[in-house]
Write a structure and sequence with these properties.
By secondary structure, this protein is of the alpha+beta class. The protein has 2 domains: 2-53 and 92-174 and 285-358, FAD/NAD(P)-binding domain (3-Layer(bba) Sandwich), CATH 3.50.50; 181-278, D-Amino Acid Oxidase, Chain A, domain 2. It has 15 helices and 20 strands. It has helices at residues 2-7, 33-39, 43-48, 66-70, 104-118, 166-171, 237-242, 247-255, 259-266, 309-330, 339-361, 363-370, 376-383, 394-408, 425-431; strands at 13-16, 52-54, 56-60, 81-85, 99-101, 121-124, 127-132, 139-145, 148-154, 157-159, 174-176, 182-190, 207-211, 218-223, 228-236, 269-270, 275-278, 282-284, 288-289, 292-294. Strands 3, 4, 12, 13, 14, 15, 16 and 17 form an 8-stranded mixed beta sheet that branches. It has a 3-stranded antiparallel beta sheet with strand order 7-8-9. Strands 10-20-19 form a 3-stranded mixed beta sheet. Helix 10 (309-330) runs antiparallel to helix 11 (339-361) and helix 11 packs parallel to helix 14 (394-408). The longest helix is centred in the last third of the chain and has 23 residues, at 339-361. The radius of gyration is 22 Å and the shape is globular. The chain binds flavin-adenine dinucleotide (FAD). The site of flavin-adenine dinucleotide has 31 residues, from strand 1, strand 7 and helix 10. Flavin-adenine dinucleotide binds next to strand 1, strand 7 and helix 10.
Length: 432
């Protein structure tokens, strides 16, 4: 956001509590990020720093579930692995057939430095306490340095504080997601054979999502460098809480349900301590206010199954900066000035949310749609991160209709495959 604003000639400051580089989860991007890099002249920086090119994505099944074999709705649903290449669908404004996997320590540092180079002022090691909106003609930002509090004035404040949701907490806008209570534990391995579960050589640099035979549980495999791979287990929090053993033990227990994966990981060297993230999905009652805008995770967090978070954060800045530039020109910083931003992001995250909900509710449907040429490119569009233009893409409507059909018919070949995590979720989702 600071890079966009500085580039538009707007004076802005970034207040960041950490000293970069610092590690961060969220390492695999989707192609809609590329438009932001292009707008900000950041693509040469991505290329010169050697981030791994991500050409596609693959999903592997835990086992050959009965429903896959008996499903007659679609022959190809019997696949054990499905994959997609981004170049299969042209994307307006995206001229390259790949996106990136990133070491977030380096990536976030480079973005920060880029914003600074464009003219933003960066204050690192400064923890923001909150906003002061008591005066009508400016916003106050309250921050701590050492054990002292300071306050500065600005025309407006953008909250980009991630899952700490500084402003959302202060304003009591945060609503915990009633459905998703996912938990993740992750680390990096050096020397893991990424081809071990791949169908072909070209998939080596894909993101892999490996399903485990534990309900709603999966593993990500994300290339970080030529030899280092990020591996994370995502499960429902209740699965984790039920385990008495240590977190590390839980990780290995999960991995051991996929013996091929286990042996490849055991042969590699773990090069980072385990880190866990819990209970992370939420929405906000509103994501703008008078002199206020919330972006990225500070605005909403949706389950990371489709590697969406960074792209949403980047696109929040792309759309949000337009409204801020407009407010600067008109001098009107009331909430209405940010209406286009708020409706665009709400539309995009609602589409993501519904897509993820279908996915958890009836996984076999996702597989079938990817393998059906009537729907493949429409699903790919969502996976490329192009979710902001339709109120509800047709492919999602079709998926929901099929889910309803399967729910209503206990004799449907897919009925047994219905997951319990997102039952009734659409009622909640359409209300948000
Ligand atoms: C398990 C898991 C897996 C994920 N996998 C992926 C993935 O593969 N791909 C993907 O795109 N996304 C993924 N995500 C999501 C991704 O991590 C986030 O969506 C993304 O990092 C959001 O970026 P952001 O800039 O909004 O927030 P952040 O990157 O969290 O940045 C927020 C910044 O604000 C600073 N800050 C916080 N509080 C204060 C304060 N009080 N004062 C000053 N500074 C403050 C923090 O130090 C931080 O640097 C995943 C998330 C989880 C939990």
């Amino acid at each position: 956001m600071a890079a966009y604003l500085a580039k538009a000639g707007i004076q802005c400051g970034i207040f960041e509590r950490e000293l970069f580089p610092r590690p961060h989860v969220g390492e695999s991007l989707v192609p809609s990020s590329t438009r932001v890099f292009r707008d900000l002249d950041f693509l040469p920086v991505m290329e010169s720093n050697g981030f791994v090119h991500k050409f596609g994505a693959a999903w592997t099944a835990a086992e050959r579930p009965r429903v896959f074999e008996t499903a007659n709705w679609h022959d190809l649903a019997a696949e054990e692995q499905v994959s997609l290449r981004f170049e299969e669908r042209d994307q307006a404004g995206v001229a390259q057939p790949y996106t990136y996997h990133v070491d977030r320590g380096l990536f976030d540092l480079l973005l920060l430095q880029h914003a600074e180079k464009l003219g933003a002022k960066v204050y690192s090691g400064v923890s923001v306490r909150g906003v002061d909106l008591s005066e009508p003609d400016h916003a106050g930002l309250v921050f701590a340095m050492g054990n002292k509090d300071f306050r500065i004035r600005a025309r407006m404040v953008v909250d980009a504080s991630g899952r700490r949701t500084v402003v959302g907490n202060q304003m009591k806008w945060r609503i915990k997601d009633p459905t998703f209570d996912q938990y993740a534990i992750h680390t990096w391995f050096d020397g893991y054979d990424r081809g071990a579960l791949a169908d072909s050589q070209e998939q080596g640099e894909y993101i892999f999502i490996h399903f485990l035979p534990v309900t709603n549980t999966w593993i990500w495999q994300i290339p970080i460098t030529e030899t280092v791979t990020s591996i994370g287990v995502v499960t429902q929090k209740k699965n984790f809480a039920n385990q008495r053993e240590s977190r590390e033990r839980f990780f290995w227990d999960c991995v051991s349900t996929r013996p091929d994966l286990l042996s490849s990981l055991r042969a590699a060297e773990q090069v980072r301590p385990f880190k866990d993230e819990g209970d992370y999905s939420y929405a906000m009652k509103q994501i703008t206010g008078d002199r206020l805008m919330l972006i990225g995770d500070a605005a909403r967090f949706v389950d990371p199954i489709f590697s969406t978070g960074v792209s949403i954060a980047l696109n929040c800045s792309r759309f949000g900066s337009r409204d801020i530039v407009g407010a600067m020109e008109s001098g009107d910083f009331r909430r209405d000035s940010f209406e286009t931003y708020e409706s665009t992001i709400k539309r995009g995250t609602r589409n993501w949310y519904n897509f993820i909900s279908v996915y958890y509710r009836l996984n076999v449907l996702f597989t079938a749609f990817i393998n059906d040429k009537r729907y493949r490119l429409d699903v790919l569009k969502l996976l490329q991160g192009d979710v902001y233009d339709d109120d509800e893409p047709e492919v999602l409507t079709r998926m929901r209709e099929i889910v309803t059909e399967v729910e209503r018919n206990p004799r449907h070949v897919w009925h047994d495959a219905l997951g319990d995590l997102t039952a009734n979720v659409f009622v909640t989702a359409t209300q948000s």
